[in-house]
Amino acid sequence: MRPSRSPLTRWWVAAAGVVLIGVVAFSRLYLGYHWPTDVTASLLLAIAILGLVVGVDAWRPAVRRAVLTRA
User: Mean per-residue pLDDT for 35-63?
Assistant: First the structure.
């Protein structure tokens, strides 16, 4: 397994991702390709899916540890 990255590196990567998402969302509105409701709905959907993925990822190792400890 690879060692985890430092918290500072994770923060910078997350900040760059948020800025990139914001620029793309703004460009969609500025160029008139989407309505504000479209952009807002897509951001909310992405946050919900991300929350689900993070939740499953956090739950999965705990369940695996519990199964391995019983065996």
Answer: 90
